[in-house]
Structures are given as structure tokens and as C-alpha cells.
């Protein structure tokens, strides 16, 4: 009897280890999407200028990724169901890797229109494929072991965060070693290898195949409800703040601290590192059901940080590198909390629309979170960090973003109270 119990325990332990390793490897593959997004930042603009592309066109090339990602939210569901999830994920990873390889060979393309056309086509394709990878990878990972949902989400965010964090320094290093093509070729071939290996590794799943199909009515069910619109607005404005910081920080840091692009990388590295370590802390709060409070507190931290930037216009003594470094740390912590709590809140809002299928719910959650992220980033870089910054400058642009965030947060509090998001909030199909 004891031998049977011991054997059973060893089997369960081995199964758990296999699932954990599979989740880690799967998350690594998704993390490459973060690298794809950020790897071109240090050197692509200069390379594009050398190829005869204007600053305006460079902006269109970079922004095309998010625009395509947004459009993909409405196209991907047409081919998404329980039978196509895994094949589409593998196809998306393969296509993403191949697209990176193509982007690397842009170095050899003719200057002018040809370079611009291939670049923007590649970014458009990359944005759509990124949506496909995220919309299929997220539900696949989160149905491997439903009891680990909060930890899996944190691990996905950690790997994506690492991708965003190592993309610029890795791109710079590889650029110095092998020129423009090497960062994209190496990244692309690694993605292709991981996609192929994932296809042949035995899949781990604790959920039987369901027969869900996302139709347009189901997709729009969450987008048109007042409570969801209010929450989505808050999330989009929050991500716009992150996009704004990405765009307007470099001129500010150069003007007041004479920091070069290479020096800026250290500050953004601190920001990403703060997010990375904060995820481990927020896992604890998420497991205890405090997802709603994590989101609200993270938005408050973000607001307070950019308000400090805003009041620097009158209190010049606050323009201090140590203070700015601390603000970047707080911004990183806020980003981690808002992002990790986003999934459970969106999932619960979906469940209130009477979607009861687990894989269907997870797929919709992946689609919506990707939509909110892309909308926010594009809005932040083009409108807040573009138009507002051009007319208002650094300090007042931060003030505008702080006001928008405060307004949307105040609108959200009644929604959170009504749905019980400020009481215990756990993952799962039940709303109760």
C-alpha cells in the first residue's frame, strides 16, 4: 500500500515537473514577441535614414506594428477555435521567425521606396502574426494547469518583460558584432527552432478539448458593454502613458542630464528590472484574490510618478538624476501591477457576458488584452507623445496624461464595486 502511494506521489511530481518545464519553454517562445517589438529601437531609425527614409516614414514603419495588431483582433477570431489553437500558434511562431529573417535582409534592399515598402509590409505582417501568437498562446498556456493560472500569467508577463528589456541591449550588441542583419537573423532562426521543437514536444494539458468557436457577436459582446468600455478606456490610457514615456523621455534626459542613447538604456533597464521583480511580489497578492486592488494601486503609483515629472516645471530642484531613476523604478512597478491584474479583470468581465467555455474565455481574454495594449501604445506614442508633446512640451504632457488617468480611474471604481472586484477575485469559470 505504501509502495503504491509512493509511486503515485512520484508520478504526480513528475507530471507537475513536465508541465512546469513545458510552461517555461512555451513562455520563452512567447517572450520572443517582446524581443521582436523592441530589438530594432537602437539602430533601425539610423539605418532607415541612411536608406533614404524620412523621419515621418520611420514613424509609420514603427507604428504599423501596433495598427496591424489592432486590426488582427477582428480577423484572427474568424479562424480561431479549439481545433486550430495549437496549429495556429506553431504557424504564428514560424511566421514570426521568418518575418524577422526577412527584416534582417532589408540591409541588402535598394534605397528609397523599395526599402520603405518592404519595411512597412514586414511590420504590418509582424503585428498581425504577433496577435495570432498571443491570441493562441495565452489560452494554450492557461489550460495546461488551471490551478496555476496566476503564476502562469505572471510567468508570461515576466518572459514578455524580459523580451522588452533585453531587446535593445541585445540588438545593440549584435549590431556591433555583425552589423544590421545579425540581430534579426539570429532572433528569427531561434524562433523558428523553438516553434519546430514545440511542435514535436508532447503537449501538456489538463483540459479536454472543447468545441468553442469565437464569432463576431461573441467578440463584440465585451466591447459594447458600458462597464467594459469604462475599464478598457482606463487600460488604454494607462498603456498610453507607457507609450508616452518611451517616446518623450529621451529628449528630456538629454536636455537636463546630457544622457546619450546608450546611457538611456540603463534607465530603461532599471525600469524593466523593477517590473521583473515586482511580478513576483504581485503573484502573492493575485493568489490571495486582490487583483482589483493591485490594478487600482498600480494606476495610483503611475499617476503619482508622472505628476512629479509635471511639477518639475515649477520645482527645478526635483530635476535630479536620482529622483528620475526612482521615478523610472516606480513606473516599472506600476506597469507590472497593471499588466498582471489586467487578465483576471478582463476574464471576469467576459464571464459576465455568459461565456462559459474555458478555452473560449481564455482566447477572448488574450484577444482583448492584446487589443488594449496595442491601442494604448499607439495612442501614447502618436497622440500623447506626438501631438501633445509637440505643442505642450514634456512637463505639461505628463500633466495631461495624469489628468486622463485620474479621470478614468475614478470612473472605474464604481464598476469595480458593482462587480465585486474589490473583494476576493480568483481565476476560474465561476463568477461567484
Layout of secondary structure:
Layout lengths: L1 H37 L5 H7 L4 H21 L9 H20 L8 H30 L6 H30 L2 H20 L15 H8 L2 H32 L3 H27 L3 H21 L9 H31 L6 H62 L13
Helix pairs in contact: 1-5, 1-6, 1-7, 3-5, 3-13, 4-5, 4-7, 5-13, 6-7, 6-10, 6-12, 9-12, 9-13, 10-12, 11-12, 11-13, 12-13
What does this structure look like?
The protein is built from 13 helices and no strands. It is mainly alpha-helical and about 425 residues long. Helix 3 crosses helix 13, helix 5 packs across helix 13 and helix 10 crosses helix 12. The longest helix has about 60 residues. The relative contact order is 0.13.
Characterize the biggest β-sheet.
none
Number of strands: 0
Strand residue percentage: under 5%
Shape: globular
Q: Over all CA atoms, what is the radius of gyration?
A: 22 Å
List keywords for this structure.
single chain; 432 residues; mainly alpha; 13 helices; 80% helix; 0% strand; globular
Short description:
With 432 residues, the protein is mainly alpha-helical. The chain is 80% helix and 0% strand.
